[in-house]
Amino acid sequence: MAVQNRKRWNHNIHYHPRVLRAVPDGARRALDVGCGEGMLARELRRTVPHVTGIDLDEPSIGQAREQSDDVEYVLGDFLTHRFEPASFDVVASVATLHHMDAAAGLARMRDLLRPGGVLAVVGLARSTMPGDLPRDLAGVAVGVCHRVVKGLWQHPSPTVWPPPVTYRQMRALAADILPGSEYRRHLLLRYSIVWRKPRD
Description:
Blueprint: H1 16-21, E1 29-33, H2 39-45, E2 50-55, H3 58-65, E3 72-75, E4 88-94, H4 102-112, E5 113-123, H5 133-150, H6 167-177, E6 182-186, E7 190-196
Parallel strand pairs: 1-2, 1-4, 2-3, 4-5
Antiparallel strand pairs: 5-7, 6-7
């Protein structure tokens, strides 16, 4: 069973519960896209019997494999790795879509889900100024308050900034590629997408 994660906080971890709440009852297989050192994968493993984490960053996968858990960690490119289509009940991704072509990433996640499976994404997008400035300022202020109380854990994975896609563009992509998905923009400079694949 997965080890307990040390108490950590950052803007991405703050929204892990949104991903975990989306896991459907009876889920047997989960995929964590861009798993980094495996924190979310280990959290998923508490309720899902078989969890696979995939990441392109070799040092991060190395750290993940050092953990005392039974998550399968794959070093590879999510877009091209030979996963069986429709083979996961849950596909999760946190702060990863902006590292790849977002449309291709969402389509690949969709195709890897079994009918009735759930896709849960938390991501970063680019603000549009000046319209997004008030929301962004509020998010920065709330983030500072969280850091004062909880500290800030710096993840070891590579970063991409600025995100290539705006929040408005991500909403449109989600609506186009994942019809009926729930897109939400969150205060701490993140968005989320939750979608259940139709059984038809």
